[in-house]
UniProtKB/TrEMBL annotation:
<protein>
    <recommendedName>
        <fullName>Alpha/beta hydrolase</fullName>
    </recommendedName>
</protein>
<dbReference type="InterPro" id="IPR029058">
    <property type="entry name" value="AB_hydrolase_fold"/>
</dbReference>
């Protein structure tokens, strides 16, 4: 049983995360866009299994939070209700579309054309899109919308500041969401006032003083820049579901936003005061018309619930942190530092991670020595942000490679919910996958035979030359791994056959008295053929 230090426990990853299939994929060159030299990226496509016609796309280029978003069950459920497919590139095609926007869009269109032909859903090549960006990739989300406003359903700008003044041609809906307590540059912050105001909310209200814009805004009290909590994911899913339902017309065009259809939520500065009031935009007057706008009452209600679930905003700061295995706090710098882990004999199960609170600011902070209190109760939880760290429902942590490996960055965070006196707090850190050195090993993974559509399961029989257990993940294709078996999933009804499935076998080795080095991962591909579905 996992021993989590200092009272911390795990928060299980949602069951769909790192399991959500992408039925199709293509690999292309990014042609050096947004980078010093060209590199290959893979574009993954998920089509809702019951979808007969794709009406829209959710586009995301990998930075940090994108993988957990595109694989999340709530996000996929919202997309399925509106026949929206998901396209995710890893590594990112281009994180900014800034160097040469039209060339980036041309590469993107080539990608969509190829996915449309491969999948059989030819309409997705011209489908409208929701652009999603986290941090740096919010620049892509904005710039694509501005370049193709007629094709943009909405923009979701996750924790990337406020960029609405960049919009000239695009007048559609935008959702801004911030990290109330950003982790950047903590040593330079003024901790007497840190977290006492919402600057993005101020900017949202200011832009509405010029003229109406369909700008929505939410913030989670005590959350962070790298924080994709379950309440946040549920709200993003609601926003996608309701905005797509409003915007997508039966003829494929986009319905313009009518202000009088919507609602405003009265979020006051410097921090919201609960309860938050919802008012029809048509009935709002004066300063209330400058409040964040939502397309319908259901979305506005969801925003209020999201911003209220942690309780009263006006509370004292507390600082949760990771600790070393000896219990001393991990250094907090302007960049994320690695977290220490103790591993079990299998090389992938994590026996111990330590967490703590800071009682005073460390010596590298501008206000070194400033004292801090913290909540006496409540659990600290450790969560996956991105990468291969996996928190199981039984309270265990382990490494679990997935299709994002090795390009997706490795981040985890520790969270505390706060109490009546102290605010919620999060602290991110880098998770470093161990590189065990010892006896060499290799994986023998027999080839997989093609099968007909409707096949249920396929046995997997890879073996390690060191006698260690071999693990698997599905790189691409309508399948998932369950207890070492490959389970084939339902194909979308218009899927073009054959459909390729790619499975990766891996073994990371182990430390201890008889160390074993990691084996080179081995991939095997086969095709689903025929038409018996």
């Amino acid at each position: 049983m996992l021993a989590i230090g200092s009272g911390a426990r795990s928060t299980a990853s949602p069951p769909g995360c790192a399991d959500g299939e992408f039925q199709f994929s293509v690999t292309l060159s990014n042609q050096g866009l947004g980078s010093k030299k060209p590199y290959d990226f893979t574009a993954y496509l998920w089509i809702p299994p019951s979808c007969r016609k794709v009406r829209g796309l959710l586009l995301a280029h990998q930075n940090v939070g994108e993988q957990i978003l595109v694989e999340h069950p709530a996000i996929r459920g919202a997309c399925a209700k509106n026949d929206i497919a998901i396209v995710w590139t890893n590594p990112a095609l281009d994180m900014r579309y800034k160097q040469d926007r039209e060339r980036s869009i041309a590469v993107q269109q080539d990608m969509l054309d190829k996915l449309a032909a491969l999948s059989g859903y030819t309409e997705l090549a011209g489908a409208p899109w929701i652009t999603f960006g986290h941090s740096s990739t919010t620049i892509f989300a904005h710039r694509l919308a501005e370049a193709r406003p007629e094709r943009t359903i909405a923009v979701i700008s996750a924790k990337g500041g406020f960029s609405y003044p960049e919009f000239d041609k695009y007048e559609g809906p935008v959702l801004y969401s911030g990290g109330h307590f950003p982790e950047w540059r903590q040593p330079e912050q003024d901790w007497r006032t840190n977290g006492s105001a919402l600057n993005v909310l101020r900017a949202v209200r200011e832009v509405q003083t010029v003229r109406f814009r369909p700008v929505s805004y939410v913030e989670e009290y005590g959350c962070g820049h790298f924080d994709f909590s379950e309440p946040y994911m549920r709200f993003l899913a609601l926003y996608i579901e309701r905005t797509a339902a409003y915007r997508l017309k039966s003829d494929g065009t986009l319905r313009p936003i009518s202000p009088d259809d919507g609602y405003v939520v009265d979020m006051q500065l410097p921090l919201p005061v609960l309860p938050l009031e919802i008012t029809r935009y048509a009935e709002a007057a004066g300063e209330l018309r400058h409040a964040p706008f939502f397309i319908d009452r259901e979305t506005a209600k969801g925003a209020v619930e999201f911003m209220s679930h942690s309780g009263r905003w006006q509370r004292e700061n507390q600082i949760v942190a990771f600790a070393r295995l000896d219990g001393s706090p991990v250094e907090i710098t302007s960049h994320l530092v690695p977290v220490e882990c103790e591993y079990a004999g299998d090389g992938i199960t994590i026996k111990r991670i330590e967490t703590t609170f800071l009682d005073e600011l460390p010596g590298n902070f501008e206000q070194a020595g400033m004292k801090f209190g913290h909540a006496a109760g409540g659990q600290r939880t450790i969560e996956r942000v991105s990468g291969v760290f996996d928190a199981g429902p039984d309270g265990t942590y382990r490494i679990r490679l997935n299709r994002g490996w090795p390009e997706v960055p490795e981040f985890v965070l520790v969270r505390h919910p706060g109490d009546d006196r102290f605010r919620p707090s999060v602290q991110p850190a880098r998770f470093v996958v161990p590189m065990h050195k010892g006896r060499p090993q290799r994986i023998d993974f027999p080839s997989l035979k093609d099968c007909r559509a409707g096949t249920g399961e396929i046995p997997l029989d890879a073996k390690s030359s060191a006698g260690l257990p071999v693990y698997y993940f599905v790189r691409s294709g309508p399948a998932k791994v369950v207890d070492g078996r490959l389970v084939l999933l339902t194909l979308p009804p218009r899927a073009r056959l054959p459909v390729k499935v790619t499975v990766t076998a891996w073994q990371l080795g182990r430390g201890g008295a008889d160390p074993v080095s990691a084996a080179a991962a081995v991939e095997r591909a086969f095709y689903i053929t025929g038409n018996d579905r």
